[in-house]
Amino acid sequence: MKYENSILKLFKNGYLTTKAVDENNIPRFYLTKLIRDNKIERVSRGVYIKKNVLADEFVILQSKSKNAIYSNTTALYLHGFSDRIPIKYDITINNGYNGSLQKEDNVNLFYTKKELLGLGVINYKLDSGNIIKVYDLEKTICDIIKNKKKIDGEIFNKAVREYFYSKKKNTLKLYEYAKKMNIYNKVRDTFEVLQ
The whole model's pTM is what? Predict the structure, then answer.
């Protein structure tokens, strides 16, 4: 019973990873026992929730890769620049990634160079209290301009227009990211149309 109680105390905002159990030198057998006792449930490989907690897709998907970052239309939604709740989650991952996110039906994967993966990443706090990694607004705007052909036209136009008139915008940061991403002219041309 001692190990089971220790495991239950390790949960953060209703979630627990196998890694946390291993770091505390608790045999994994006790996770299986808690599942059998109907106290916790496995929602993904290495991710568990307490029985009465609603599973959060944002947390579960991001737990599948430490390099997964919410981007494009999903990031627009999180920043309040789109009112369409994601049915498929846009996630950016490093080139050469070969993992379980590729098998997910509800994920659109975007690939980037490893050195650009961390550009503009912020910690975003969900209503549940869980923290996920998402691109900041400027990186998100750069991403949707870069991936314009893969983005719904209505979402794209609304987001670019809203950003242009937003008090939240940081055009210095936007153009700094655009240069690093090699899309400076594309970004400039997109906003010149609105002026």
Answer: 0.88
